[in-house]
Amino acid sequence: MGPRLLLVPLGCVALLLPPPGAAEFSPSLDSDFTFTLPAGRKECFYQPMRKEASLELEYQVLDGAGLDVDFHLLSPKGETLVFDERKSDGVHTVETEDGDYMFCFDNTFSTISEKVIFFELILDNMGEDGQDEEDWKKYVTGTDLLDMKLEDILESINSVKARLSKSVQIQTLLRAFEARDRNIQESNFDRVNFWSMVNLGVMVVVSAVQVYMLKSLFEDKRKSRT
């Protein structure tokens, strides 16, 4: 079975086994996910890992007041490997052992604003590439007459695959940056419009007061004698 990533509600943090019918990621070694974290809430995820593998996790806060969130990464033994407090993004890589790694996004410090969070997982040395190589070696027999060995073809294909995976990863991160920048621009646009209307209202009120005061200066307040 390929690596899977499970969303676990805060009240079920102690459960390591996936519930029936739980959604799973495809068995890809590069997975990304975007979700909304409500105000005052904490969401945790589990990722099963193998020994001597590598887990790289990158996250970004795309939208929400302050663009910040608390991040925790715990080992299968419950040890805190990473703790980020009130940060907008982060990149962390750890060498893993057998077991389920838990990482949490905490928005309990915010009582009003929800956060839109994007994160990406990159898993290395999970054993699938080795299996692919063994499958290729079954076809190596009888290739002495070929000018190019199948091992060379396999090496070239793996190189192209790695470059394509890196390109997909970079494009995904660029889309995340674009989404965050767009949200910031829209927020700034709304603020500019709001304060422009406030300034316009103040100018109208000040103009009316000035006209009234000028008129009062030129009024003849002396009462006509009869």
Automatic annotation (TrEMBL):
Subcellular location: Endoplasmic reticulum membrane; Endoplasmic reticulum-Golgi intermediate compartment membrane; Golgi apparatus, cis-Golgi network membrane; Membrane
Entry-linked InterPro entries: Emp24-like (IPR015720), GOLD_dom (IPR009038), GOLD_dom_sf (IPR036598)
Residue ranges of every copy of the GOLD domain listed in the record: 42-123
Gene that specifies this protein: Tmed5
Ranges annotated as spanning the membrane: 194-214
A Gene Ontology cellular-component term: endoplasmic reticulum membrane
Signal peptide: 1-23
KW NAD (keyword) present: no
Membrane disposition: Single-pass type I membrane protein
Main location: endoplasmic reticulum
Record's protein name: TMED5 protein
Family under the similarity heading: Belongs to the EMP24/GP25L family.
Organism: Promerops cafer
